[in-house]
C-alpha cells in the first residue's frame, strides 16, 4: 500500500528531522514531506477531529522515517529505550508511527514537561517529576490518540503507533519515491 502525504485540518507539520535542530545536530531529511501508511493516516485524521472538537490542534514532529534515516538516528543515539535499533526495525519505518504534540487553537504547543526527543526518564508518559499542567496535557494527548485507535510507547510522551505494527513491512526511502532523503 502506498504512503500518503499528510495534509489535514487541525494538523500542523513540523518535521524536526528535516532541520538540524534534532538530537543528531544535522539535517536527516532532505525534504519536509510527512507521509504515513493509509491506515495510520486515517487514524491521524480521527485524532485531529477529536483534538479539534476540544479546541486543539496536533503538531506532527515525525511520521514515516525510512530505514536509512533510522540508521542516522541510531548512530547519534544508540539507546534502544528511545531509538529503535534499525536491525530490528522501527515502527516509523513501517509508516505506522507518529511523533506529535498538542497545540492550542493558534498552533502554540502545549506544555508537555520536556521537549520532543528529550531522551530522559522525564519523557516517560507516567513521569510525575514534571509539573501538573504538563502531566494533564500528556494525559489529554494520550486520551485523544487512544480514542483514535493509537497505542502509546511508555518511554516517550510524543510517540504513538498503530496496534500490531509488525504486520506492516519495513520501508526504505524508495517506498516514498525518494521524497524524504
Structure description:
Belongs to the peptidase M15D family. Keywords: Cell wall biogenesis/degradation, Dipeptidase, Hydrolase, Metal-binding, Metalloprotease, Protease, Zinc. InterPro entries: A_A_dipeptidase, Zn_M74/Hedgehog-like. Its cofactor is Zn(2+). Its EC number is 3.4.13.22. With 181 residues, the protein is α+β, with helices and mostly antiparallel strands. The chain has one domain: Muramoyl-pentapeptide Carboxypeptidase, domain 2 (2-Layer Sandwich). Helix content is 23%, strand content 17%. It has three helices and seven strands, in the order E-E-E-H-E-H-E-H-E-E. It has a five-stranded mixed beta sheet, with helices on one face. Helix 1 packs across helix 3. The longest helix is centred in the first third of the chain and has 16 residues. It starts with a strand and ends in a 20-residue tail after the last strand. 38% of the residues are buried. The model has no long low-confidence stretch (mean pLDDT 96).
Amino acid at each position: 500500500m502506498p504512503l500518503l502525504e499528510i495534509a489535514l485540518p487541525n494538523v500542523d507539520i513540523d518535521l524536526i528531522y528535516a532541520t538540524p535542530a534534532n538530537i543528531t545536530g544535522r539535517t536527516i531529511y532532505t525534504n519536509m514531506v510527512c507521509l504515513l501508511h493509509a491506515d495510520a493516516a486515517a487514524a491521524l485524521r480521527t485524532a485531529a477531529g477529536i483534538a479539534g472538537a476540544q479546541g486543539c490542534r496536533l503538531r506532527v514532529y515525525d511520521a514515516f522515517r525510512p530505514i536509512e534515516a533510522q540508521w542516522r538516528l541510531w548512530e547519534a543515539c544508540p539507546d534502544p529505550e528511545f531509538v529503535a535499533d534499525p536491525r530490528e526495525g522501527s515502527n516509523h519505518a513501517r509508516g505506522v508511527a507518529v511523533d506529535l504534540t498538542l497545540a492550542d487553537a493558534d498552533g502554540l504547543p502545549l506544555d508537555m514537561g520536556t521537549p520532543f526527543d528529550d531522551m530522559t526518564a522525564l519523557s516517560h508518559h507516567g513521569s510525575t517529576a514534571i509539573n501538573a499542567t504538563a502531566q494533564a496535557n500528556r494525559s489529554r494527548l494520550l486520551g485523544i490518540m487512544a480514542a483514535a485507535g493509537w497505542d502509546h510507547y511508555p518511554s516517550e510522551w510524543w510517540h504513538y503507533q498503530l496496534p500490531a505494527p509488525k504486520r506492516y513491512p519495513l520501508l526504505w526511502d524508495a517506498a516514498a519515491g525518494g521524497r524524504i532523503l
